[in-house]
Design goal:
Layout (H helix, E strand, L loop, with lengths): L3 E4 L3 H13 L4 E4 L2 H11 L9 E5 L7 H11 L5 E6 L3 H9 L4 E5 L3 H27 L8 H12 L7 E4 L6 H10 L8 E5 L5 H9 L16 H4 L4 E5 L6 H13 L1 E2 L8 E2 L3 E6 L3 H6 L5 H7 L2 E4 L10 H16 L5 E2 L1 H9 L5 H15 L4 E2 L6 H10 L39 H14 L5 H20 L4 H8 L3 H10 L11
Parallel strand pairs: 1-2, 1-3, 3-4, 4-5, 6-11, 6-12, 7-8, 8-11, 13-14
Antiparallel strand pairs: 9-10
């Protein structure tokens, strides 16, 4: 394992941390200033195993601050977890560093077992991200370990040397176009174009011209001849998405193309040969559409030569972690920012979500998290309302879930936060007491094999308690501290430790 790098000009701090980490079989390497660290990082570029697994740095040091070091490290090594050590007087800058990329901060004087536990958590996170990154680099254009997805991959492989027409069925957002692209990429037509058209997104009056093109003067505004999608896809693949919504009269024209391989441009008199493989997709039940007279039966049989059913995301929940990490990496590249990591608890809550919008919804959630999550490690409290609201409303009445899909819900989630402009009123309490919910939550986390259950639950409990008191006192911290029976310094420290300054109620 790579060593833990400790940066502090105080020899006693370095000595204490070194001994404590060595007792945990964690190798260390110590530095007294930022210049030494940057030089060592440059040298380690040639030998990755000599680099740090985690870096623990003080803020105030001669020759450069820990915050400057953090900025330089994140620019070159964005995935390296950095823990900032800080005295209480530096708390504001430490919180800024935490929000700007640090894994966590460690207030001085610190409790040694807690410091070791925090470093161990950073090591676990670092190793998990290294494995995830290796998998991501080796990942194909489609991700999926679930049995249903493996069936899809096998089907793509069996069709790799075929030009047969394929019908892809599946719910909206499940990735039907990705499957179509994979079928094209692994077919004999891979060197030809892949042209996609959503037949439901184009007005009926324009769809015919979009598909088959038009001659000059075919209708008002047709000042030049235009090639349609069939001609654009010559020698390649034409993907017709949402085929179930195609107007009935156009279905007849499509059937003719599939039958004899020729078509006419709108307003044209000369047949155009179509050397095109057609892949169609729909989220609708085409058999039912045929029964109701909304879809031609003969066209259905022409399209339904080979049918691939793409599973909904709720049917392949084991794929959610890999997909989430992939989309977080993808969003970070698009936005030009450091990729965010996601905790096991947040992944468990995501996996328990129903995803009515399927993979597309997960991709949107990851993009939202890249922009909105305040820290580099995404926790359950950072998930968007569409995920957390469902969990809070459904969890109390739901039976205990199996450990691998346990729905992670904050113990106090049954207490609704009052609107800031309204007088404080206690929210109605669910039938199950909060102690029972806490017990259920602890059981779920323990069943996952977690080793930070105490920290996770205590952090959530304290956050909810302080926020509720601040709601009650309209954000007045001193009064909230008095109501809770704690000191003013204690509530200020807790607000910073729990990252509650980002909430409007904690900002005053």
């Amino acid at each position: 394992m790579k060593p833990i790098w400790i940066v502090d000009d105080d020899q006693s701090i370095r000595f204490v941390l070194e001994k404590a980490l060595l007792r945990e079989d964690l190798p260390t390497r110590s530095f007294t200033n930022t210049r030494e660290v940057l030089a060592a990082l440059e040298a380690a570029n040639d030998d990755e195993m000599q680099g740090p697994q985690v870096l623990v740095s003080d803020i105030r040091m001669p020759g450069g601050s820990g915050l400057d070091l953090l900025d330089k490290i994140k620019a070159k090594h964005p995935g390296l977890p950095v823990i900032i050590m800080t005295a209480f007087s530096d708390l504001d800058s430490a919180v800024s560093a935490f929000q700007g990329g640090a894994f966590e901060y460690l207030p001085k004087p610190f409790d040694l077992p807690r410091a070791v536990e925090l470093i161990r958590r950073a090591v676990d996170e670092s190793q998990r991200e290294e494995v995830a990154e290796e998998r991501m680099q080796a990942a194909p254009e489609m991700l999926g370990q679930a049995p249903a997805m493996q069936d899809v991959f096998r089907a793509i492989g069996r069709l790799s040397q075929s030009n047969v027409t394929v019908l892809i069925t599946g719910e909206s957002g499940s990735g039907k176009e990705l499957v179509a692209r994979a079928l094209h990429k692994h077919s004999p037509r891979a060197s030809g174009p892949f042209i996609a058209i959503n037949t439901a997104a184009i007005p009926k009056d324009l769809l015919e011209s979009e598909l088959f093109g038009h001659e000059r003067g075919a209708f008002t505004g047709a000042q030049t001849m235009r090639r349609g999608r069939f001609e654009q896809a010559e020698g390649g693949t034409l993907f017709l998405d949402e085929i179930g919504d195609m107007p009935f009269d156009l279905q007849t024209r499509l059937l003719r193309v599939l039958s004899d391989g020729h078509f006419y441009r709108v307003g044209g008199h000369n047949a155009v040969k179509a050397n095109v493989r057609v892949i169609a997709a729909t989220h609708q039940d085409l058999e039912q559409r045929v029964k109701h007279g909304a879809f031609r039966e003969d066209l259905f049989h022409r399209l339904n030569v080979i049918r691939l059913r793409l599973p909904a995301l709720r049917e392949r929940k084991e794929d959610v972690p890999a997909l989430a990490r992939h989309f977080l990496q993808q969003s970070a590249r698009q936005l030009g920012v450091e990729p965010k990591r996601i905790s096991d608890a947040a992944l468990a809550q995501l996996a328990a979500f129903g995803f009515p919008g399927n993979v597309r919804q997960l991709e949107n959630i990851c993009h939202w998290l890249t922009v909105m999550a305040p820290a580099q490690v995404i926790e359950p409290k950072d998930l968007p309302p569409e995920v957390t609201t469902r969990a809070a409303t459904e969890f109390p009445a739901a039976p205990a879930a199996p450990p691998h899909v346990a729905e992670v819900v904050e113990p106090a989630a049954v207490v609704a936060a009052p609107v800031a402009t309204a007088p404080f009123q206690a929210a109605p309490v669910a039938q199950a007491g909060w102690e029972d919910l806490l017990e259920r939550e602890a059981q779920a986390l323990l069943a996952e094999g977690r080793h930070d259950v105490w920290d996770v639950l205590v952090r959530r409990f304290e956050s909810r308690l302080i926020l509720t008191a601040l709601h009650f006192t309209r954000g007045r911290r001193i009064e909230a501290a008095q109501k809770l029976g704690i000191g003013r310094n204690t509530i200020t420290r807790k607000i910073a430790e729990l990252d509650l300054d980002r909430d409007g109620d904690a900002g005053r």
